[in-house]
Predict the structure.
Amino acid sequence: MSTFAGEGRAEVTDPARLMSVDRWRELILGDLPALDAIELRIQDTLGLVLAAPVESAESVPSFANSAMDGYAVRVDDVADASVDTPVELTVAGEVRAGAGQLPTVTPGTAVAIMTGAPLPAGAEAVVPVESTSAGERGRIRIHRAARQGDHVRRVGEDVSPGQRLLPAGHRIRPADIGLLAAIGQSRVLVRPAPRVVILSTGDELVPLEKRPEPGRIRDANGPMLGALVRQAGAVPYSAGIVADDLKAMLYAFDSNLGHADLLIATGGVSAGAYDHVQEVIGKLGKVRAEKVAVKPGMPQVYGRIGDTPVFGLPGNPVSAFVSFELFVRPAIRALQGRSDVARPQVRAVLTEDVSAPPHKRTFLRVRLKREAGRWTASPGSAQGSHVLTSLVRADGLADIPEDVTRLAAGDEVTVHLLVDV
Ligand code: AMP
Ligand code: MG
């Protein structure tokens, strides 16, 4: 075995050898395959991403109908109506929602009409029932003038034929499904939720159900990444824990690829004597390892085994989490063809002074609050990459650029939200 030794440098990392976060992410995004599109019933598409734009073949509404319960009238007939001087019209019939046979509104008549009922021929407006009163037998008093189209839902007011409703790359939400149903689009072309295999590497790890022996710890990353993957709209598959052993790791990676659209391993990517992830991916496919100018999460590994993108994330839980946000979540979104690969950001004012290392983009875990019309960001005191409680209290990651080493309370920062809006 060769000697476990470094290069005798004063600095742990040589800034000249660091790759920027943006460059690393670009390299990854540029390498991703696209998942095949499938056609699904719209009821089964919540959270999936449209693979083709949706255009409407129909108008919504498809026929003019009433927006109120009331009386369908001709504008001229009610021109002089007011609260104190109502106009009396003969009731020529009634139209309910769903009615197929319609009476006609001729001069001097009105038709009782319910919300959503088709507007009868001759009618120009609807007067709400609240503005009417009972007249002589078979007649209705109208207490309000109406303009052409009042309380009438026009044909195509919501959607017109040929209108582009949803672009490719759009993640489907409940309202979209409502709209698709309204236009009669019962099936759409989507990209499926990627299947993401999660593997925790490390001799020290035990599954959470087991009591750790001395020197060992529970696998926190596996369950946490499972949740992150699910939140990202993908399907997590836990492949459990694998020891820091080349053969065991080769087997674990290889045997899980068959059901993975993407694979995430944590641990074993830094300078330790037993960090084998890069070598394992390299033996099965192609791999690249970089020191990325980021804190936390500097050592990063990415590769492709066949069509499957493979990530090697650092093992410290906060590093794994931040790496997921910076690189894996965008990759999952890109696999699905999503047009927005980044989480939303806000500008916020720091509530405390902060310091950050030179040459690295630092992502501080911050708690956001809305105060006096602006967002404030409070970093907790402990920001170490092993401090899980710093993540638990955070709603965002404050993005401190490489060249900034000090910020004062009151300074503005960009915060990547850990939620979607
Ligand atoms: P590594 O990236 O393998 O050098 O691990 C860095 C640190 O993260 C070490 O303190 C590990 O014990 C810890 N670590 C690695 N994997 C996990 C995990 N799955 N859950 C919790 N901590 C971990
Ligand atoms: Mg390790």
User: Anything to note?
Assistant: The CA atoms of residues 353 and 408 lie 4 Å apart. Residues 317-335 form the longest helix (19 residues). The radius of gyration is 31 Å. The helical segments are 21-29, 174-182, 221-231, 246-256, 277-284, 317-335, 388-392.
